[in-house]
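Could you show me just one protein sequence together with its fold in token form as a worked example?
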Amino acid sequence: MLAIGRALAGGPEIMILDEPSEGVQLNIVGQIGEAILNFRKQFNLSIILIDQNASLISVTIDRAYAVEKGSVVAMLDFDAVRNEEKLSQVLSI
């Protein structure tokens, strides 16, 4: 959270979050998702989220790309991202 606070102090337009749910308890992952949504709204941020947690992805982003070995292997629009079953299938590629 400290690193995110420092990044926000610079007034960025884009923020990259790499695996913010890694090694975090499930109940805290929900709080991270809420924080990401608040950052998007409050600071008018575009966020690039790199994560494997389908629950976090489905509530925080508008579009998803699955990347394998440096190549995009799937793209999901807003509706597909909100469908956790479809999202989980893509994440298991």
